[in-house]
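Entry 0007
Protein: 40S ribosomal protein S3
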Amino acid sequence: MENQSTIARFIQSGIKYAEINEFLSKELREEGFSSMSMNSYNLPIQITIRALKTHEIAGDKKTRIKALQSVIAQRLNVQETDVVIALESVQNKGLCPFIQADSIRQKIQANIPFKRAVNGAIRTIKEAGAQGVMVVVSGKLKGQRAKSVKFSDGVLLHSGQPCEDYVRKGFTSILLKTGVIGIKVYIMLPYDKDNINGPNKEMVDKIRVFDNKDEMIII
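Output (C-alpha cells):
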C-alpha cells in the first residue's frame, strides 16, 4: 500500500507539472517562454520560469508575477505565499526549441511559406552552434490531404542516454483556415564544459588517445 501511495503521489505531481507547464506556455507565449522547473515536494514551492523576455514578465510592480502566483497556488491548493516564482533568462535563443518553434509559428501565421520559415529557423539554430536539428511540420500544408514534412541538418541522436543529455524538444501548433498545423523542433546541443549552451558531459563515443608523455589527444 505504501508503494502504491508513493506511485500515486508521483503521478499527481507529474499531472500538476504538465498542467502548469501548459498554462505558462500559453500565458507567456509572447514573452518567449522556453521551459519551467518545479519543486513541489517541500514548501514553499519553487518554480523557475525560463523565458526570453523576463523583464516583461517581471514588470515594474511585479503584478504579473503575483497574478501567476495566485493562479498556480489555486491549482496546487496552497496559499499564495507558499509559491515562489523565479525568472531565468534564456542565454541563447538559437538553441531553445520552444522559441524556435514559436518563431516558425509566427512566420506561418504571417503568410510566409512554411519552407522558408523552417529553413530560416534551421539556419539560426546551426549558427548558434547546434550539432544538429530536425523540424517536423504536420497538417494540411498544401491541398486537402494532411501530411508531415521533415527537415533536418547535421547530427541528431534518437535513442540512448546521450539523446537524453544532448537533445532538446519543442512543440507548438497554429490554427489556420485549413486546420491545425503542428510544429516540432529537435535540437542537438553542443558540448560545453561550462554547462551554459550545452551539457558538460562528453559523448560516450569520444575517443581519447594517450601517448608516452601522457598528453591527451581528443579525436
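Curator remark: The CA atoms of residues 3 and 138 lie 41 Å apart. Strands lie at 33-39, 45-51, 83-89, 132-139, 147-154, 167-176, 179-188, 208-210, 216-218.
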